[in-house]
Design a protein that fits this description.
With about 450 residues, this protein is mainly beta. It folds into four domains: about 5-135, no CATH class; about 145-230, Immunoglobulin-like (Sandwich); about 235-325, Immunoglobulin-like (Sandwich); about 330-460, Immunoglobulin-like. The protein is built from three helices and 41 strands. The strands form eleven sheets. Strands 32, 34, 35, 37, 38 and 39 form a six-stranded mixed beta sheet that branches. Strands 6-3-4-5-7 form a five-stranded mixed beta sheet, with no helix packed on it. The chain has a five-stranded mixed beta sheet with strand order 15-21-20-17-18, with no helix packed on it. The chain is rod-shaped and about 190 Å long. The termini are far apart.
């Protein structure tokens, strides 16, 4: 047993001893910087066989921090550490009037009494009479506590990190893992300084336990036995990150960086296929690629879903999606014109309507005619690549006619409608000639008159 040297007002207490305070007459057992009040002469008589208790020295003041009383059979002596004098290894903690035996050195060094670790140098040798004055209490038997994994846990991977808790970090830890709870042939059997250790195991059920060990010390008892199971890893593809699209909102026709990362549970190589309903990818078979957005001239934001399929060499797949919004861009303006071959024609004649789209586009052109009655008539024609169009129209009524030309535009140009063009349609001139009249008739008889109506040549100037 070790004893500390303590300075006492210029004196040196080289070993534990009995000191009597001159002023109060109180007697204390002093050791390791603490003083223990000896409660009665009866205690002194019971301790007379223990070295240091044969006599007492009188001092003006007893040094040391006041410890528990030595001794009462109640809480006033809680915290006393005692062992029988002689070759007896057992150490006891007095608590609630009972003596609690420490199972081993690990239990002593890891037990906290009222929040503090215990000190070997605070153990007081006692006589058998004093030891037997205290009835036995609950034994203090500590071991490392298994914290993870919890019992019955199942793992699909081969690696498992085993964790345990030990209050005193100065001890090493003996870890055993076996496929049998008797630990006859441990698969893992090693000593580690930390409070965790990763093991790699094949599929099966395993048992594990830990005890604390320290050179020159009695090891702790084994912890409770834990168990877990490793199952055959499921073959699957896991998307670790993504898919991502940056930026997630892009201008019309802009570019987006796309990325995904994935792993195969069995380590197989992976291939990638990116798809989108519109636009195109620089490299659709790469985990990192560029998507080129389409032109959007709709006037509102359009959102598209980009899809990536990850496939392993054995055909397992995983699919991820990410959405990208494409802003609308303003369309450019266009102009369409309309011209007439004449502003006056005769009923039955044909008028030529022509014009052009600017900028030039080959596109459908709609001609809307407004008859003198107010009714409208739509006719269609096609502009050539130069933007020019022509159409011949034969009015079916005389009077004032109007016409406009229009086109709907395309992905980058707004449609347009021309100004109104007007033309007049006149009736063709005619001539009536009498070819026969009955020249001699009787009063009251009918008269026969014959003749003809002749339409004169069209396009006669006024």
């Amino acid at each position: 047993m070790l004893f500390l040297t303590i300075g006492v007002f210029g004196e040196v207490v080289a070993k534990p001893e009995l000191l009597k305070e001159a002023s109060s007459g109180r007697i204390y057992w002093v050791m390791n910087g603490k003083k223990y009040y000896v409660t009665s002469p009866d205690v002194l008589s019971k301790m007379i066989s223990v070295p240091g208790w044969e006599k007492q020295r009188v001092v003006d003041s007893v040094p040391g921090v006041l410890g528990p009383d030595f001794y009462h059979k109640d809480q006033r002596s809680d915290g006393l550490l005692i062992k029988r004098y002689g070759n007896y290894p057992a150490v006891y903690l007095i608590e609630g009037g009972r003596k609690r035996e420490f199972a081993d050195e690990y239990s002593f060094e890891n037990f906290k009494f009222k929040g503090r670790f215990l000190d070997w140098n605070d153990i007081i040798w006692v006589s058998p009479e004093v030891l037997n004055d205290f009835p036995n209490g609950q034994r203090i038997e500590l071991a490392p506590i298994l914290t993870a994994p919890s019992n019955g846990s199942e793992f699909s991977g081969a690696s498992v990190t085993l964790q345990w808790k030990s209050e005193n970090s100065s001890w090493n830890h003996h870890l055993q893992v076996d496929d049998s709870s008797d630990f006859i042939s441990p698969i893992v059997d090693g000593i580690y300084p930390s409070s965790s250790h990763a093991v790699t195991l094949s599929p099966g059920k395993y048992f594990w336990r830990v005890r604390a060990e320290k050179n020159g010390r009695q090891p702790s008892k084994w912890s409770k036995t834990g168990y877990f199971e490793i199952r055959q890893a499921e073959h699957k593809i896991t998307i670790v990150n993504g898919p991502t699209a940056n930026p997630s909102i892009v201008d019309s026709g802009g570019s987006v960086s796309c990325s995904i990362s994935a792993v195969d549970s069995l380590g197989h190589s992976l291939s990638y296929i990116w798809n989108a309903p519109v636009g195109w990818f620089d490299n659709p078979n790469s985990p990192n690629t560029i998507w080129h957005a389409p032109q959007n001239t709709s006037g509102s934001i359009k959102t598209y879903t980009l899809t990536v399929t990850v496939r392993c060499s054995e055909g397992k797949t995983a699919t991820g999606e990410v959405q990208v919004s494409v802003r609308s861009q303003s369309k450019k303006t266009s102009v369409i014109t309309v011209q007439l071959s004449s502003d006056k024609i005769t009923l039955g004649d044909v008028i030529t309507i022509s014009g052009s789209i600017n900028p030039p586009h080959s596109a459908n052109v709609t001609l809307k005619f407004f008859a003198p009655s107010g009714a409208s008539i739509d006719r269609g024609t096609v502009a050539t690549s130069s933007g020019n169009y022509t159409y011949e129209f034969e009015p079916d009524h005389a009077g004032k006619w109007q016409v406009t030309a229009s086109w709907d535009g395309d992905s980058d140009h707004e449609g347009a409608t021309s100004n109104i063009a007007s033309f007049n349609v006149k009736r063709a001139p005619s001539k009536i000639r009498i070819t026969h009249v009955d020249r001699s008739i009787m009063l009251g008889d009918p008269v026969t008159i014959e003749g003809e109506i002749k339409i004169l040549k069209r396009n006669i100037a006024d």
